[in-house]
TrEMBL record:
Species for this entry: Rhynchospora pubera
Pfam families: CRT-like
Keywords, ordered alphabetically: Membrane, Transmembrane, Transmembrane helix, Transport
Primary location: membrane
Protein name (Swiss-Prot/TrEMBL): CRT (Chloroquine-resistance transporter)-like transporter 2
Family matches, as SUPFAM superfamilies: Multidrug resistance efflux transporter EmrE (SSF103481)
Top-level taxonomic group: Eukaryota
Stated family: Belongs to the CRT-like transporter family.
Length: 325
């Protein structure tokens, strides 16, 4: 029964992961001039939503006082790691060619295996390790299919790929720490695992705090001077609400951005639920499996993106790698 429940959660998470990626692309159609604004809305908006849900679950008796009294130091570390992951990822992303970013991000799985072995004392069979390798290899082949650029990192300084890999390490560390909170919380709560909204709310809260402290640095990475940030946010809000003077440029707002934010929130909840039910590694593999499917869906003609793209045979080969284990 437990295996069936995990299988259903995996299927739902893959579907939500694909939906999340596709809707993000669609949300950027009206918000193409304000991706940094959209990122901040999601970061800080989730805090309000998660804590509101947490409060309702506490009033309903689902969340107990003991859950709320779990050590906050772990959540602080999660916030620091995720904020550093954002900062490092944005720094490297500004200097790396597009195809390199998702490829280097696959080091996330490798870091998860390393951290879970070091801090959770987990062991993996050769079959499991080979399965991870196949998934990573398949995604890399699928993403790079059809590229004739050759060595697309040949003109990039060594520091930038390393910084993107470090970004994955920070995020992997945060995911393993969330798994540890569930395991440690089960011991502290005498057999009952913490509610996912306790972990989501406090983790997101501290992430938002440290992102806020890094806001001058992060905005500068996006080419927005800190002094110009208020005007940028005001213009972004006008476009988000489709209330600006040039409504043609923001066609699709606020429907598409709100649809993405809702889907992204449900996806994050589903991912954390999968971590609670199984492990952080299973959740990450599930999300990774959605990458080739997302690329295929995004190659089709879609509303607001009517021109599709043709996929090469090597893409299909890469997808077969992903699902061969």
């Amino acid at each position: 029964m437990a295996r069936r429940g995990i299988g259903a959660a995996v299927g739902a998470t893959v579907l939500l992961a694909v939906t999340n990626r596709v809707l993000y692309k669609l949300a950027l159609v009206p918000m193409k001039g304000f991706p940094f604004f959209l990122a901040q809305v999601t970061t800080f908006g989730y805090v309000a939503v998660y804590f509101s849900i947490l409060f309702l679950r506490y009033r309903a008796g689902i969340v107990t006082k003991e859950m709320l009294l779990l050590p906050k130091v772990y959540f602080v570390v999660i916030g620091v790691l995720e904020a550093l992951g954002v900062a490092a990822g944005m720094s490297a992303g500004a200097m790396l060619p597009g195809p390199a970013i998702p490829i280097l991000s696959q080091s996330f799985l490798v870091w998860q295996i390393i951290f879970s072995m070091l801090f959770l004392k987990k062991s993996y069979s050769l079959n499991q390790l080979c399965g991870c390798f196949l998934v990573i290899s398949g995604v890399i082949v699928a993403i790079t299919s059809g590229s004739d650029e050759g060595r697309f990192l040949s003109n990039v300084e060594f520091i930038w790929p390393m910084l993107m890999i470090a970004s994955s390490a920070f995020q992997a560390g945060a995911s393993i720490l969330k798994e540890f909170i569930f395991i440690d919380g089960e011991r502290r709560l005498k057999g009952k695992r913490p509610d996912i909204f306790v972990v989501n709310s406090f983790g997101s809260g501290f992430q938002a705090l440290f992102v806020f402290l890094l806001l001058p640095f992060l905005s500068n990475l996006r080419g927005i001077r800190f002094g110009d940030l208020p005007a940028y946010l005001n213009d972004g809000a006008s476009c988000f609400l489709n209330a600006g003077d040039d409504q043609v440029e923001c066609d699709g707002a606020p429907f598409l951005p709100l649809l993405f934010i809702t889907a992204n929130m449900v996806f994050n909840i589903s991912m954390l639920n999968l971590v609670k039910m199984s492990s952080a590694l299973v959740a990450s593999l599930t999300s990774t499996l959605a990458v080739p499917i997302s690329i295929y869906v995004l190659s089709l003609p879609l509303p607001y993106i009517p021109h599709g793209s043709r996929l090469s045979p090597s893409f299909v080969f890469g997808v077969s790698f992903c699902y061969s284990d």
